[in-house]
Amino acid sequence: MCDAPPKNPQAPQPEPSAKAVADLRRRLHKQAPLTLPSPPAGKGSAPLAPIVFRRDLPRTEHAPAPARPSGRPLPLAEALSGVEIVAPNGSRTYLVEERAIVQNLAATIRTGAAVELSAALGQALENPASALRGLLRELALTEPPRLEDLLFLDLETTGLGSSPLFLIGTLACDAAGLALRQFFARDYAEESAALLCFLERAAQHKLLVTFNGKSFDVPYLRMRAAAAGVPCRLAHLHLDLLHAARRIWKDRFGDCRLQTLEYHVCGRRRHDDIPGAEIAEAYHAYVRSGDARQMRAVLSHNRRDLLTLAEILVQMPVPRADDLLGGL
Questions:
Q1: What is the distance between the alpha carbons of residues 91 and 224, in angstroms, rounded to a whole number?
Q2: What confidence tens digit (pLDDT) does each residue in 299-315 have?
Q3: Phi and psi for 134 in degrees, rounded to 5?
């Protein structure tokens, strides 16, 4: 049996008959006609629907970026009540200064009396049996410092490593009471002026009080001062309360972060505070836009840290001798 010859694709196909064409036309006419929507009169084609990108997945690795404020940019002078100051080299930066009055300290519950924070600090310095005097003895002080010798310090920076700092917050006591002074760089170029103005003020104090300042604040200050060509002479006596807090409270609170101690020791919790992880981006956004709305929250965060630091120092129990081993 022979195979059929292969079809030739190039061979011409026969034309359909007239009857077949007529049958196809009749079938098509029986179908419903296809109609397309007309565009709105006078407006051309209809607009496309917006494309919506969903971000429903939880963020587990990074804190969410600060919400962008709406409305017109808020100038710094309206957001923060401060003044422009001149550094020793003629450069300028911004200073926000206010008096700190903290009544009804949690520590005074033991005595039943309301004590203002500066008065409580003065009492702790005068009392040889206080925790503050016990901590100061470990610094080999021959005599206790005056209240005016103390300088509480807390920084806000744009990150880690070699990133600029933009806010140097201080708390100190003078004849009128406790004064909060915050040296604020309005842009990256003002960092050196903020450093110079702070260091000029810091030279008046003998004892620096920080929270993790030995590992972060003081090395950061020295690094940024070196980068700016600014001589950095800080008080050689340095009381870092993080180390003391860990020895006293590490087994009670789970951790010794400043806000943990603020809750357990000072008896208050922050509800409207900007998270620390968002502060750097908030400052970058301010420099880009000139909108100082978020800077109010940042400086408020810094003020709270400083006041909490001073209040924790007042309320520390007298440490045991073995707690003080390891240096402060």
A1: 16
A2: 999 999 999 999 999 98
A3: -65, -40
Which residues, other chains included, contact 169 with Cβ-Cβ below 8 Å and sequence gap of 6+?
A: 153, 154, 155, 156, 180, 181, 182, 183, 299, 302, 303, 305, 306
**Sheet of strand 207-210: strand arrangement:** 83-86, 92-100, 177-184, 165-174, 150-157, 207-210, 237-240
Query: Domain residues of the chain, as ranges?
Result: 76-324
72 versus 45: which is more confidently predicted? Answer: 72
Contacts of 103 (CB under 8 A, 6+ apart): 114, 115, 116
Q: What is the pLDDT of residue 144?
A: 85
Residue with tokens 């001073």: 310
Q: Is the pLDDT of residue 70 over 90?
A: no
CATH homologous superfamily of 76-324? Ribonuclease H-like superfamily/Ribonuclease H (3.30.420.10)
Cα angle: 227, vertex 192, 145; to 5 degrees: 95
Contact 268, 262 (CB under 8 A): yes
Q: Strand runs (DSSP E) across 161-293, as ranges?
A: 165-174, 177-184, 207-210, 237-240
73-117 residue pLDDT tens: 999 999 999 999 999 999 999 999 998 765 545 444 344 455 688
Distance, in Å, from the CA atom of 209 to the CA atom of 59, rounded to the nearest integer, reads 36
Three-state DSSP class for 160? coil
- Report helix, strand or coil for 62: coil
Whole-number Å distance between alpha carbons of 187 and 195: 13
What is the predicted pLDDT for the residue at 251? 83
The span from the CA of 222 to the CA of 206, in Å, is 17
Total number of residues shown for the chain = 328
pLDDT range class, residue 293, cuts 50, 70, 90: very high
